Amino acid sequence: MDLYDVDYPARRRRGLLIVLSSPSGAGKTTISRMLMEADPQITMSISATTRPRRPGEADHVDYHFVDDAQFDRMIADGEFVEWAPVFGYRYGTPKAPVKAALRDGRDILFDIDWQGARQLEPDFGEHLVTIFLLPPSMEELERRLRARGTDSEQVIGERMRRAADEIDHWAEYEYVLVNRGTDECLAQVRAIVAAERSKKVRQTHLHPFVRELIGPQH
Ligand code: 5GP
After folding, report:
1. How far is the CA of 187 from the centre of ligand 1 (A)?
2. Contact, 47 vs 61, CB < 8 A?
3. Phi then psi dihedrals of residue 43, to 5 deg
4. What pTM was estimated for this model as a whole?
5. Most buried among 120, 160, 166, 170, by the most CB within 10 A?
6. Could you identify the atom of ligand 1 that is nearest to the CA of residue 119?
7. Which domains does the chain have, with CATH numbers?
8. Cα–Cα–Cα angle for 75, 1, 126, nearest 5°?
9. pLDDT band for position 77 (50/70/90)?
C-alpha cells in the first residue's frame, strides 16, 4: 500500500502508528484517553462499527456507528486500512484520516484487536508500534467489566471467554505491559512512544539538521 509514501516536509518527523490492544476491561480506553490528553501530537483513529451504540457513547467520537449495508459499501469502496469481525459485529479503521495524520507528521493511536494489528503489519512495518495491555489477573478483569455496568451478564460471560482468546495473541506484540495501575501504565506507554519517536528511521528531518551542524565537508 502507498499510504506511507506521502510527501513529507523535509523538517518534519515521520508519524508513528501506535496499536494498543487488550481484552475489554484491561484499561485500554482509559489509557488511550489519558495519552491523547497528555500528548497533543497523537490523534486517535475512530473506527467504524456495526455494533449498536452503548449508553454514553457518541457517534463520530467513540465510533462511526454504521449499519451493515454502509459497512459493506465501505469495504467495497476500499475505505478501510483493516477490518475484522469482533463479538459478532464488524469493526474497521477508515483509511482517509490515517493518511491525513501521516501527511501532517502526527502519530495515530489505534484501539483495535490482534486481527487489526496483524493486517496493518505488512503495510506499515517499522512505523507500526504494537502494545498489548494485560490485566493483572482474570478476577480483576471481570471486576472491571462489571464495574462498567454497561453489559449484561451474558455479554460479560462472553467477553471473559473472548478475553482469554485475545490474551492468547500477546506474543504477537512488540511491547507487553501489565496494567497494575493507570498512572504507572500510562507512564510506560509514554516512555515507549518517546523511545520510538527517537528512532533514527523516524527522524528524517535530522539529515539537514546534522548537515548544518557539522557542515557539508563531512
Ligand atoms: P468494543 O465493542 O468493546 O468497543 O470493542 C471490541 C473490540 O473491538 C476491542 O478489542 C477493540 O479493540 C476492537 N476494535 C475496535 N475498533 C476496531 C477496528 O477498527 N478494527 C479492529 N480490528 N478491531 C477493533
Report:
1. 23
2. no
3. -110, 135
4. 0.90
5. 120
6. 22
7. 17-45+105-214 (3.40.50.300)
8. 120
9. very high
